[in-house]
């Protein structure tokens, strides 16, 4: 690309910045991958080193790129955004961002000694509850630890599927089971050694814990889930009106 192909009247570094943003958003440059070197970009665009550095600096300041000492500049993974007031699953949020959701199953088993969960789900005493624990990924980045509990009837349905890939809400809706509403509680905490190991972070780093109790159309509890998110990978969006 030569200078003749740029629009006159607008700074070159801003035009190059927009081109680089397009490459990030359309997936040409993927999260955690090195971008071309300054010299390669200078040759491609036919501009000065200063112009390339200005464009990259803007993208670093905007949180799209990150400079790694000894490596170069990489595409920074973008945070997932949870919208309070919308009942969505993790996979839906990831796909809306243009990424690929993935899971790694830690365990799935029916248990009868989950006393707090039994109370929350309002199931009879000694009734088995399905406990599923998974690591949730956005592309190849571990984002969250998910611990979900389900009444036996729904649990039996979920266990028919590959829980490494299962999208719970999609499975339920395909079986004509619909969630109506949910209550959520959000808290901050620090990662334990085990949690940090699973999420590829350092022990003590901040986590955002979301506890969700979901209800069906009959207003009976159907899902009790605690999800711990990496704070560098997830944040909530709240719109306030007055």
UniProtKB/TrEMBL annotation:
GO terms for molecular function: DNA binding; DNA-binding transcription factor activity. GO terms for biological process: negative regulation of DNA-templated transcription. Keywords: DNA-binding, Transcription, Transcription regulation. InterPro entries: Bact_HTH_transcr_reg (IPR050679), Chorismate_lyase_/UTRA_dom_sf (IPR028978), Tscrpt_reg_HTH_GntR (IPR000524), UTRA (IPR011663), WH-like_DNA-bd_sf (IPR036388), WH_DNA-bd_sf (IPR036390). Gene3D superfamilies: Chorismate lyase-like, Winged helix-like DNA-binding domain superfamily/Winged helix DNA-binding domain. The keyword Transmembrane does not apply. Coiled coil: none annotated. Residues 10-78 form the HTH gntR-type domain. The keyword Repeat does not apply. This is GntR family transcriptional regulator. It comes from Guptibacillus hwajinpoensis.
């Amino acid at each position: 690309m030569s200078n003749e192909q740029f629009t006159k009247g607008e700074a070159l570094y801003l035009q190059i910045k927009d081109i680089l943003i397009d490459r990030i958003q359309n997936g040409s440059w993927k999260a955690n991958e090195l971008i071309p070197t300054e010299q390669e970009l200078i040759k491609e665009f036919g501009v000065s080193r200063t112009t390339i550095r200005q464009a990259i600096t803007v993208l670093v300041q905007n949180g799209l790129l990150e400079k790694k000492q000894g490596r170069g500049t990489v595409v920074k993974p973008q945070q997932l955004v949870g919208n309070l007031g919308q009942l969505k699953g993790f996979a839906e949020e990831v796909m809306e961002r243009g990424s690929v959701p993935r899971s790694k199953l830690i365990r799935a088993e029916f248990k009868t000694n989950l006393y707090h969960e039994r109370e929350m789900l309002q199931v009879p005493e000694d009734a088995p509850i399905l406990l599923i624990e998974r690591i949730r990924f956005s592309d190849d980045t571990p984002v969250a630890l998910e611990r979900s509990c389900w009444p036996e009837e729904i649990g039996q349905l979920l266990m028919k599927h590959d829980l490494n890939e299962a999208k719970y809400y999609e499975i339920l809706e395909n079986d004509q089971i619909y969630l109506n509403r949910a209550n959520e509680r959000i808290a901050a905490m620090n990662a334990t050694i085990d949690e940090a190991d699973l999420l590829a972070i350092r022990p003590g780093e901040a986590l955002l814990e979301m506890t969700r109790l979901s209800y069906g159309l009959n207003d009976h509890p159907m899902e009790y889930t605690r999800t711990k998110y990496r704070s560098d990978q997830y944040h909530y969006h709240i719109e306030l009106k007055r």
